[in-house]
Design a protein that fits this description.
disordered N terminus, 16% strand, 8 helices, 7-stranded antiparallel beta sheet, two-stranded antiparallel sheet, Arc Repressor Mutant, subunit A, alpha+beta, SH3 type barrels, 37% helix
Length: 249
């Protein structure tokens, strides 16, 4: 992040908000860095479109960017991104806690609403919810001052066999994974034991720390999520295991 960017003196466009928030999110976890290819996949556009829009953002001093180089938010860009992320995560929390939507349903809805909700309505939603520190996926909600309540945690895929963990965060990019985990009783706060660590085939097994996972019996999760065997263990794909952040206990 740079500290010499001028203040942004107009309302950002939806394109600007979308790009800046995706760059911001790419830096949320240590070791992650945004790339043109990654942004294209997240935004559903071509890499050439991403490159052209990144150049526009750089001209407006919202990012620092060189083709084939790193992408860094300026202070002005970070302020915009943090504000939109706050909106998004408060909206997701409201949709789950007050309207009863599933955690696999709210990401796209919040994407649409985050660009339109006023600060007045957002603050009222935040107060109604009791000023939550995290959304239903465990993602930290930035404060009004831009501060972020954040604690690092490894992906479940990186945890070894026999380790007991508590789920603290689940990525919202794969609704089928969220649905499967919900069906099997896995959510933020769930404690699991790694039965077998991630193997060469890209799968691992876990179970609930208190006993069998889910309702037991043979079951198959959605494609890319995993399956549950007759012993109550959950077999997680690499996609599912990489989506879960968990703290060893």
């Amino acid at each position: 992040m740079t500290s010499d960017a001028p203040a942004f003196d107009r309302e950002p466009s939806r394109m600007e908000e979308d790009y800046l928030t995706n760059v911001w999110k790419a830096y949320e976890w240590p070791g992650d860095r945004p790339t043109t290819t990654d942004l294209a996949a997240r935004l559903g556009v071509t890499p050439s479109t991403v490159s052209a829009n990144l150049k526009k953002l750089a001209r407006d001093a919202l990012i620092e960017y060189e083709p084939y180089g790193s992408i860094q938010l300026t202070d002005a860009g970070r302020a915009i991104a943090t504000r939109v992320v706050r909106r998004h995560r408060i909206i997701e929390t409201y949709l789950v806690q007050r309207l009863g939507l599933g955690w696999d349903e709210v990401h796209d809805e919040a994407d649409r609403l985050e660009h339109a909700v006023s600060d007045l309505v957002l603050d009222a939603m935040d107060a109604e919810l009791g000023h939550p520190a995290a959304d239903p996926h465990g993602d930290p909600i930035p404060g009004r001052d831009g501060s972020i309540p954040f604690a690092d945690a490894p992906t479940l895929a990186a945890v070894g066999s026999g380790v007991r963990v508590r789920v603290v965060r689940v990525a919202d990019r794969h609704p089928e994974v969220l649905r499967y985990l919900s069906e099997k009783g896995v959510a933020v706060g769930t404690e699991l034991v790694v039965v077998t660590a991630m193997d060469a085939s890209g799968a691992m097994r876990v179970r609930h720390a208190g006993g069998a996972a889910g309702s037991g019996g043979a079951a198959t999760g959605p494609a890319g999520a995993g399956s549950a065997n007759a012993g109550g263990e959950l077999e997680l794909s690499a996609t599912a295991a990489d989506s879960i952040r968990a703290l060893p206990l």
